[in-house]
Design goal:
The structure is a single chain. 60% of the residues lie in helices and 11% in strands. By secondary structure, it is of the alpha/beta class. The chain has helices at residues 2-27, 88-94, 98-101, 107-118, 129-140, 156-163, 172-179, 189-205, 221-229, 240-301, 305-329, 336-348, 357-369, 374-393, and strands at residues 31-34, 43-51, 59-68, 71-79, 122-125, 151-155, 164-165, 211-212. A hairpin with a 7-residue loop joins strand 2 (43-51) and strand 3 (59-68). Among the domains are: 26-213, Nucleotidyltransferase, domain 5 (2-Layer Sandwich); 309-393, no CATH class. The radius of gyration is 57 Å and the shape is rod-shaped. It has 14 helices and eight strands.
């Protein structure tokens, strides 16, 4: 009977424990720890604690960094006066002493300030250490979160293990070095929180990608900086050997670009020189045209311009008349139609009428009679020659 009673009591106690754990889990549901990847959000909070000793509620420093659009926008840090003594080992890690926090507020005072930053946001921590700290602090100071407010904790260390494969370890400095995150002052709460947030921001930005760690030694910071200075983009996975090859390729690429730029500049200079030369030629042509117009204007304004022009016209007419006479008398026969042609030409060129007055009279008499014999032909021919010779002698 006693055995049965004891057995029943054991069952009742076990059921109470199970239901009690379920109730506790529901009460602490406002503070959830998640190790799964989540969808990127524009705003989240990164958090880090330093403790005075091995007890989780012995927090002596807190660092909070608010991220917006995956970039740090606000940094908050507080020293905390812990309810327990400092352990020398912890002091050796973070450097915070009891004297540093003797006038600092206790966590229950700070909680009222930081709680609005945490509710409704994802809170990134590196491992579950900081989650345990905040839970123990809430218990120790008997703080309560409103039932409709939740704080979603994200374990960035665990996410790094899921997303990045093959690292020797996943300590905060190791992952920061691998991702090229610089400026970490390890075990300074705000610096650790910011580094944690930057890692989480990278994980959000690269959601859906699993990155294999590089083979060999990771590229040094100096190599990465040199790659950036050469205009290259540093990949997330990069070994020293690959970095060296990348640097050599970038140097060659930059040399080619400089040579192309040099050739382009030289071509531009040649084109400019050609344009200048063409402009000089056009200027020279315009100058010659202007000089010619100026000379012409000077010539036209001179007193003897009309006389010289008249002489030039007479000379041209004389040459035309010579050709016409040679055509008429060249075959030794002069016809009435040819005499009419000469007469018509002489009448059109008044400048020579005076010199051929007698010749015109003879032509009129001949064309009127309608008869041309050898004597008239010879007389006309001689008159033409005499007139032309006379005009040449006067240098018409």
């Amino acid at each position: 009977m006693d055995f049965i009673t004891t057995h029943i009591k054991g069952i009742i106690i076990a059921l109470c424990v199970i239901f009690g754990l379920a109730i506790i889990k529901k009460i602490l549901g406002a503070l959830r720890l998640s190790g799964k990847a989540v969808k990127p959000k524009k705003r989240f909070v990164a958090l880090d604690f330093e403790t005075a000793n091995e007890r989780y509620y012995s927090a002596c420093s807190i660092g909070i960094v608010v991220f917006e659009n995956l970039k740090p926008k606000q940094r908050i840090s507080y020293l905390i006066k812990p309810p327990t003594k400092f352990d020398p080992e912890n002091v050796a890690i973070h450097g915070i002493t009891a004297d540093d926090v003797k006038d600092a507020p206790t966590f229950d005072k700070i909680w009222k300030i930081i709680y609005p930053l945490l509710i409704g946001n994802e809170v990134a921590t590196y491992s579950d250490f900081d989650v345990k700290v905040i839970r123990e602090l809430i218990k120790h100071f008997k703080l309560r979160a409103k039932s409709n407010h939740t704080i979603n904790f994200v374990d960035v260390c665990e996410l790094s293990r899921i997303k990045i494969h093959g690292l020797s370890n996943y300590k905060l400095p190791t992952v920061c070095e691998y991702l090229g995150i610089e400026g970490l002052n390890h075990h300074e709460a705000t610096s650790d929180a910011e580094a944690c947030g930057k890692i989480y921001a990278w994980l959000l930005a690269n959601e859906g990608r699993a990155i294999e760690a590089c083979n060999g030694t990771p590229a040094s910071t100096r190599q990465k900086d040199y790659i950036r200075s050469l205009g290259g983009e540093v990949p997330l996975v990069l070994s020293r050997e690959d970095a060296s090859r990348m640097i050599d390729e970038l140097i060659e690429t930059n040399k080619r670009r400089k040579e192309e730029q040099r050739q382009e500049i030289a071509e531009q200079k040649r084109a400019e020189a050609k344009l200048i030369k063409e402009a000089d030629k056009q200027h020279e042509r315009r100058k010659k045209e202007e000089d010619a117009l100026r000379l012409l204007a000077d010539e036209m304004s001179s007193p003897d311009y009309k006389e010289r022009k008249s002489r030039s016209k007479r000379g041209q007419d004389l040459r035309e008349l010579q050709i016409l006479v040679n055509k008429v008398v060249g075959d030794g026969v002069i016809e009435i139609a040819e005499l009419a042609e000469i007469k018509s030409w002489l009448l059109m060129h008044k400048v020579l009428d005076d010199d051929f007055e007698e010749t015109l009279s003879l032509i009129d008499a001949t064309t009127s009679s309608g008869q041309i014999d050898d004597d008239i032909t010879m007389e006309l021919y001689c008159r033409f020659l005499d007139c032309l010779s006379s005009l040449r002698n006067r240098r018409v």
